[in-house]
Amino acid sequence: MRCAACSAEVTEAARFCDACGAAVYQQAPSIPSPPADGAEGGARAPRRRFWLWLGIPLTGAAVAGAAASLMAAAPPSVSADQLEDALRAAIAQGDGPGRDPICVANGLAYDGQPVNVQLGNAGTLAWMDALAAAGLYAPGEEAPSGGLASQAIRTYSPRPALADWSGARHLCVARGVTLEAVRRVGTVQSMRFRGQAYPGVVAEVVWTLDGPAPWLRAPEVAAAFGAELPSWRGARWEVTPEGWRLVQRRNFFLSGTQWLTSESLERVAGSTPRATFAP
Fold this sequence. Notes:
Layout lengths: L44 H28 L7 H13 L9 E3 L10 E4 L3 H12 L7 E4 L7 E5 L9 E2 L2 E14 L5 E5 L2 E17 L6 H10 L7 E5 L2 E13 L2 E4 H7 L11
Helix pairs in contact: 3-4
């Protein structure tokens, strides 16, 4: 072999070059090149083929995921008219409000007996004054309650009109509701119902009072009832020049090719429908 410093010939066992005195380093063993794919003795070829084949199902999964993303990006569409038709069909099949009355149940009996209110109870006095303005009770008369601990009270005596709108400790303002419109339809998205996923959408449903009490038109009475009436199945009350309305946010679900309300979906799925519209 040759000296790396001066290229002079040196023996294999020499530690220093006789020509220039430089240290002599032994050459490291050479590393053979890997055999070509398919060559005899090539241990790495199968592994390379293994990773090549593994890449095929991974690519297929990526394609499937891309397809799912494309489907998710194009959900089924629905119009307000379609949802209104679905709701009207639900009502016709008994899955809607029907003739359920709209009532107040705030602790008073409304049973034809006089109502005595302490003068310090401002909230109840205001409510009874509104009922007197509606013609359901006579204006309150003040008198002592009597007894050992007598105190000032105001007594409201019922009038005959009360019997037409009361019963079982509640006071009603309408015989039922009527569907006016479905509007403000949201975006179709995946929604769960009874543990199952469906394409679903939220829309605003507008109801009007069916057979409202005539005395409800008086402004002072309407204001009192607007504050006293409870939320009706998640709906909010609106008093407009045309009359009273209930505005409700509702879920609709796509089952097969048919849009359904939650009540109709329960019936179709074989479940027992809940009495969601009971007063």
